[in-house]
Specification:
By secondary structure, the protein is mostly helical. It has eight helices and no strands. α1 runs parallel beside α3 and α1 runs antiparallel to α4.
């Protein structure tokens, strides 16, 4: 029992650190990309929407994939974290290679604001698709790992999401107010890479030590004996309505963030510090709400 609890807390800690690195990347990549796209609200919104689009694609695709994959899920998680770190290390080279392509496309569509924004989104989405896709897959992997019997899905989803968002808040504050100013973009990126590879290495060691197998067996036995029932089933129409509602909620949440950012920039100036303050505040609310309702 103590081994199972220690295992769970260790994985929780790793996921919190994963949130730290994820927002370090978002802050750094936003700063890098606005140097290419321009430091405007439209450019910042493009980066944000592309980042969230990659997360959504990864969460949906990898979430479906792991439903048909056998354990150990902790090994899958380790590989995802390692992939994020490796790509983040290569990101400046990818951006350097893509910049001439964007410059050519910009010249071709200059003057047409709609086409220009579509080009910006397409280029930005292509650049950050791989790491954000992998980031999006980490949450469903751990949800499946810690809610195997089906009766803890709500609690584990809320808690893991909230915990990861707490890490995101820490990463936002650390990178926006301290790391970028002291270390610069390159070394700040390396901090995020170090965290990702550390998380990946620790998760891989858990799998190598076979703690994953024993912890999984123990939890499934406890959950099965506690409930004695199978997970509830839902009609297709109910599921679709809930998913539509969740999608609309996400749309409104990001629309509010962009709107509030634009309004507050009138008072805070349009720079990396104002973006950090707004993003950090937004994430604090999400983290608190997730952790409260997870209970």
């Amino acid at each position: 029992m103590n081994e199972q609890r220690s295992y769970r807390y260790l994985v929780y800690t790793l996921f919190l650190l994963s949130g730290v690195s994820g927002l370090i990347y978002q802050i750094v990549w936003t700063r890098m990309l606005v140097l290419v796209f321009g430091n405007t609200m439209l450019a910042t919104s493009t980066v944000l929407s592309a980042f969230m689009g990659g997360l959504a694609a990864g969460s949906y695709t990898l979430g479906r994939y792991i439903d048909h994959r056998p354990r150990p899920l902790i090994r899958v998680y380790a590989l995802l974290e390692a992939g994020i770190g490796i790509f983040a290390l290569l990101f400046p080279l990818v951006l350097q290679a893509v910049t001439p392509i964007y410059t050519g496309l910009y010249s071709a569509v200059e003057g047409n604001i709609i086409l220009l924004n579509l080009v910006r989104f397409g280029v930005c989405f292509a650049i950050i698709l791989v790491p954000t896709f992998l980031m999006g897959g980490t949450l469903p992997v751990l949800i499946k790992r810690f809610s195997a019997a089906g009766n803890r899905i709500g609690h584990e989803t809320g808690f893991l999401y909230g915990l990861n968002t707490v890490g995101a808040v820490l990463g936002t504050i650390a990178s926006g107010y301290f790391l970028l100013r002291v270390l610069g973009m390159q070394y700040t990126t390396w901090v995020g890479v170090f965290i990702n590879l550390l998380v990946a290495g620790a998760a891989w060691m858990l799998w190598m030590a076979r703690l994953e197998v024993s912890a999984t067996a123990t939890e499934e036995k406890l959950e099965t004996s506690a409930t004695g029932t199978s997970p509830p089933t839902y009609r297709s129409i109910e599921t679709r309505m809930v998913l539509i509602g969740i999608g609309l909620s996400g749309f409104c949440a990001l629309a509010y963030e962009v709107f509030w950012t634009r309004m507050l920039n009138l008072f805070l100036n349009n720079n990396i510090y104002s973006f950090t303050a707004i993003l950090g505040t937004f994430l604090v609310g999400i983290a608190v709400g997730s952790l409260i309702y997870a209970r």
